[in-house]
Amino acid sequence: MVGSEKKSLVFAYYVTGHGFGHATRVVEVVRHLIQAGHEVHVVTGAPDYVYTTEIQLPRLFIRKVLLDCGAVQADALTVDRLASLEKYIQTAVLPRDSILATEVEWLKSIKADLVVSDVVPVACRAAADAGIRAVCCTNFSWDFIYADYVMAAGYHNRSIIWQIAEDYSHCEFVIRLPGYCPMPAFRDVIDVPLVVRRLHKTREQVRKELGILDSQKVLIYNFGGQPAGWKLKKEYLPEGWICLVCGASEDHEVPSNFVKLPKDFYTPDAIAASDVMLGKIGYGTTSEALAYKVPLVFVRRDYFNEEPFLRNMIEHYQAGVEMIRRDLLIGHWAPYIQRAVALKPSYDGGVNGGEVAARLLQDTALGQYHASHGLSGARRLRDAIVLGYQLQRIIGKDIAIPAWYSLAQNELSSRTQLPNKEVVDNSSLTKENDYFAILHGDHQGLPDTLGFLKSLAEIQSSCSPQNNNKFQTREHLAAAAMFNWEEEIFLSRAPGRLDVMGGIADYSGSLVLQMPTREACHVAIQRNHPSKQKLWKHAQARQPKDGCTAVLQIVSFGSELGNRGPTFDMDLSDFVEDGQPITYEKAYNYFARDPAQKWAAYVAGTILVLMTELGIRFEDSISILVSSGVPEGKGVSSSAAVEVASMTAVAAAHGTTFICRIPCSTTTTNFSFIMILNLYPQTTPLSQIHLIVCHILYDFSVLTLGI
């Protein structure tokens, strides 16, 4: 608790209009300020009960004004980027002059000693115009979040980002919460522990109130409000479990093993009384899952760049399991819940961030100046680099967290690196080694191929009992769990491609000159009879009771650092309809259902192309590991490298030679699988295509590994 002071201070606390998560963490800071005898005016668009449920003191004043809009969500899991920008323009840009005049007058009228913002941009500028010091308290800033939206809307909207950043620059410093994003606009940073709402009741008291036995397993369903159209069914839960539903409407009917919590039920108490939480990643759910050691089964939220940073934090402390959106919607919950309940969350850091933040705010309002951190300049440069990358990247490419920025970077960075010359020269990866034998082909001494082989060896060794306690990323764990290490594995390599001359002029019959890059994509593939295939638990639970069906499982190295799911799986029967391969248009719609897994179309799509164009039937299950060092969005054909390496590996594993047999007319409007073949005019003889492709991919190779 903040210590009592002789002088009663006045704080103006601005809260962003994005959801209730910001309001709930503001409550904890405000509570400590009021307990210290200060007066707090909260400027918010959230309902009063969010604050008054926890704070019932006369020194709290609520002013209902919305000065920003946050992100507009099309549904509980998808942000509408263009609508978000448009609403922000209408809410904060067009009426900016009027807002500033009103806020300056109001701040002077209440005689505010300090302005605090979480994390409303214009509040910082209003404080400066009123001659009042300002501090932000947050884990992200809107300039970073909106940078992605500006890329989708067009460069002419970049002025929005610069204006937001300029507003933030009027703050003296930012009180930075764990799971933070880059925030280069702030001059200085002070880190605090997690801000977590306190508990009102014990686990036993909550369960007794709800009529739940202490021995009964409980899931809490927490998406910040019941999404319209989501039906809940009894069979969604494991046998014997019950589910507490937050935010359900009064007329929403739920099965007998689901319990609707009252609207005013205190959510932190319900979370702490549960065994597993199912929801989306936000600061509130993440902080409370960590603080109360309740594993979180989460579903990715599209186009909200705060999420990768929070996700890395919760997975670092072994408190998170990702659920595929498809499985959420069809009710395939049980495998994820059972995996989550077996976790042992390890967060042991502080949870008194509200108290610490309140002390900092009080000291600042009393006139104290916090010394600038010695690394402040380097920190701002680092943040600016990440933000700059965000603003110049290609539309549709997800934000990635650089390894040097992410939490526990040594553990979380798993992209295959290019070994230096010394490493290659001393490598023991020859024809035979302790892990596997190369049965066919040659790695040609390529450094990145040797590095990929080493990664495979490390994945295999991670399966040994002595490595059970070593931290492993989900990418490594998933890859280790899908390969049968006693069977053959096929490996292919395809480099990136630099357009030296000609570009897309080949469509009109022109000659082109393409140069392969040193960076390449590697694919490892294994096929097994469905009865012998090692399946992930949720894929295994999907198998029919009376037999086995062929399953495709894919792991993508490197996607863990972006907002893409690192794994993908599907039944290969999904590619068949009435005994024939589905159309490319239907395949496009199939993969577009979940943007977090849309990347899998580049890999899985090659199988459909082989089915459609060559009539190949895939009866065995397939496991694929993809690791690409080709930079995305830089014009060096990163997606083509993935497609070529994938199709080459699939064809090799199934004894098929495809380059000189697939006609050049294999093109699709919406679904590009084999971009490398689409680069050449349709009048070119197939024999020439074979030569051209081999020339461009001159250092591509296929290896067969025996483990």
TrEMBL record:
UniProt keyword Nucleotide-binding present: yes
| Pfam families, A to Z | GalKase_gal_bdg, GHMP_kinases_N, Glyco_trans_1_3
Residue ranges of domain GHMP kinase N-terminal in the record: 602-656
GO molecular function annotations of the record? ATP binding
Keywords, comma-separated and alphabetical: ATP-binding, Nucleotide-binding
Transcription is among the record's keywords? no
Source organism superkingdom = Eukaryota
Give start and end of each Galactokinase N-terminal domain.
483-527
What the entry lists under InterPro entries is as follows:
GalKase_N (IPR019539), GHMP_kinase_L-arabinokinase (IPR053205), GHMP_kinase_N_dom (IPR006204), Ribosomal_Su5_D2-typ_SF (IPR020568), Ribsml_uS5_D2-typ_fold_subgr (IPR014721)
Name by which UniProt lists this protein: L-arabinokinase-like
